[in-house]
UniProtKB/TrEMBL annotation:
Alphabetical list of SMART domains matching this protein: HTH_LUXR (SM00421)
Domain of life from the UniProt record: Bacteria
HTH luxR-type domain boundaries: 14-71
One family name in Pfam for this protein: GerE
Name of the protein this chain belongs to: HTH luxR-type domain-containing protein
Length: 80
């Protein structure tokens, strides 16, 4: 088994992650869409889009996949 955390760089900057972001990230790990995440956390999909963009900027990620990888490498969760 490969420990992916060892293969990923530590995020350049740490995003200011609140409880809502901590609820969003695991759903991203599972592959939920922004609309589905919004339904789960009872926020609009547009709010979820904005929060994901803010997280991407905070972690220096160019994509959702990179955000997931960097947030896991930064110790905010795991995909499993």
């Amino acid at each position: 088994m490969i420990d992916f955390e060892l293969l990923l760089p530590i995020p350049r900057t740490r995003a200011d992650v609140d409880d809502v972001d901590r609820a969003i990230l695991p759903l991203l790990y599972e592959g939920f869409s922004e609309k589905e995440i919004g339904q789960q956390v009872e926020l609009s999909h547009r709010t979820i889009e904005h929060r994901i963009e803010r997280l991407k900027q905070g972690f220096g990620a160019g994509s959702i996949a990179q955000l997931v990888a960097l947030s896991i490498a930064g110790g905010l969760g795991s995909a499993g």
